């Protein structure tokens, strides 16, 4: 049984709208689905936005050239998380340093344990 893969991954060093368009069109032609596409999911690069403009008139004739560029939710979430991590990375490093300081000696660990008990908190390991 022959495997068929729907989709592609650009592996060339050139990541242009024209190359992406051509790869998508090859798949569309192979499967004969030009008149069945209303949306394509791509990430948010400029090349992908331009690709959608180039493809609009070539596929989805029944939608009169309208082609929705559905941006990849996972990619957007990844960008948001990376941005958030940039903001809090200083605080994370400070916490790591504090934990390393406490764990550097047994008396500090014991003092931390006494502090937790005095505050009615359960002493925890880091």
TrEMBL record:
Major subcellular location class: nucleus
Top-level taxonomic group: Eukaryota
GO terms for cellular component: nucleus
Localization annotation: Nucleus
One annotated GO molecular function: zinc ion binding
Keywords recorded for this protein, A-Z: Metal-binding, Nucleus, Zinc, Zinc-finger
UniProt-listed PANTHER family: ZINC FINGER BED DOMAIN-CONTAINING PROTEIN 39, ZINC FINGER BED DOMAIN-CONTAINING PROTEIN 4
Name of this protein: Ribonuclease H-like domain containing protein
Organism: Parasponia andersonii (Sponia andersonii)
């Amino acid at each position: 049984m022959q495997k068929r893969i729907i989709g592609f991954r650009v592996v060339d060093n050139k990541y242009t709208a024209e190359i992406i368009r051509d790869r998508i069109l090859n798949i569309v032609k192979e499967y004969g689905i030009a008149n069945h596409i209303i949306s394509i999911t791509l990430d948010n690069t400029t090349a992908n936005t331009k690709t959608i403009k180039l493809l609009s008139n070539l596929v989805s004739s029944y939608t009169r050239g309208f082609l929705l560029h559905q941006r990849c939710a996972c990619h957007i979430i990844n960008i948001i998380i990376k941005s958030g991590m940039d903001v809090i990375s200083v605080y994370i490093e400070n916490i790591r340093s504090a934990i390393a300081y406490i764990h550097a000696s047994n008396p500090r660990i014991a003092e931390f344990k006494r502090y937790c008990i005095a505050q009615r908190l359960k002493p925890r390991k880091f």
